[in-house]
Amino acid sequence: MAEEARPSPPGPGAVPGAHISLQVGDTLGAGRWWCRTLGFELVENRDGPHASRSHLLLRHPGSGLVVRLRRGGPAAGRPHHLSLRVESEQALRDWAAHLRRRGIPHSPPKDNGLEQRVSLTGPDDVRIELWWPRPPHAEPAARRRAARL
Description:
8 strands; 25% helix; alpha+beta
């Protein structure tokens, strides 16, 4: 019985990086707070009325933790999702198989041309994303097809 109560070993593949996405009412104000108070550094600013995915990306130089601040509307002040980066496309497929074997509901791998991800929901409805960014030099098939049109 005691053996069953212990957490099982982690799933397949290492998870070398992570970010947490937070919904906030004032993106720039929240960004200033994270930088001034906790020492985060601005990595990317896509905040503005014409940005399709308006957000700020901050990184903590000591820990490497990345925080993405998104405009949240009525959900401001709540976490949006926790994203765990996997090291390869194969590792993402391995994670999907691991979740399937354990009977944990999850999305099929989704590919937007720049990244692939598998989404699941943890305890207390915390959204979790296992994410693999395509290398900058990779040209996905979808992008090649669009270029031919």
